[in-house]
């Protein structure tokens, strides 16, 4: 019984590991770049405002949302009722919280964002499965060819 040389197996395994790593690392790095906001209700927002936990706030008038950064580093999103922005801004300024408002172009950009369907992850997963199938087929073909030659 003739076995294939060990270096060929090692090279094949190393190449498949490198390819897998190369496909998955960019998808993981892109996910870390964005800030994840957790949604909160009126009571939670009022409690944070009363206790002085808010570091900064940014209004998006187009979608009536308030992005809040807390002093502990968390990011929360509060959706305020129609025409509630002036009252919220005055409450925040009274507590000494820096308040900013998004420019119309930035607000429109945020409003037009579609929900993420992780298309790139599916593509990377499909490519990874195809590579695994191809490497497996090549190894199987090579093994059968060598056993037929004996």
Overall geometric form: rod-shaped
**Rg for CA atoms:** 27 Å
**Number of discrete helical segments:** 5
Profile the largest sheet.
Answer: 5 strands, mixed
Strands of the widest sheet, in order across it, are 1-4-3-2-5
Summarize the structure.
With 150 residues, the chain is an alpha/beta fold. The chain is 57% helix and 16% strand. It has a five-stranded mixed sheet, with helices on one face.
Key words describing this protein structure:
2 domains, five-stranded mixed sheet, 150 residues, Signal recognition particle alu RNA binding heterodimer, srp9/1, alpha/beta, 16% strand, 5 strands, single chain
Task: Write structural notes for this entry.
- It is built from 5 helices and 5 strands; from the N terminus they run H-E-H-E-E-E-H-E-H-H.
- The protein is of the alpha/beta class and 150 residues long.
- It folds into 2 domains: 6-33 and 117-149; 38-103, Signal recognition particle alu RNA binding heterodimer, srp9/1, CATH 3.30.720.
- The chain has a 5-stranded mixed beta sheet, with helices on one face.
- The radius of gyration is 27 Å and the shape is rod-shaped.
């Amino acid at each position: 019984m003739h076995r294939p040389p060990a270096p060929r197996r090692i090279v094949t395994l190393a190449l498949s590991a490198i390819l897998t790593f190369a496909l998955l690392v960019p998808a993981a790095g892109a996910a870390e770049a964005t800030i994840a906001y957790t949604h909160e209700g009126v009571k939670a927002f009022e409690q944070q405002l009363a206790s002085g936990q808010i570091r900064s706030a940014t209004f998006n008038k187009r979608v009536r949302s308030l992005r809040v950064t807390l002093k502990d580093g968390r990011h929360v999103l509060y959706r305020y009722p129609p025409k509630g922005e002036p009252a919220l801004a005055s409450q925040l300024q009274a507590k000494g919280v820096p308040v900013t408002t998004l420019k119309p172009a930035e607000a429109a950009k945020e409003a037009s964002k579609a929900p993420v369907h992780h298309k790139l992850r599916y593509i990377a997963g499909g490519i990874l499965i195809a590579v695994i199938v191809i490497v497996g087929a090549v190894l199987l073909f090579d093994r059968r060819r060598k056993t037929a030659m004996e």
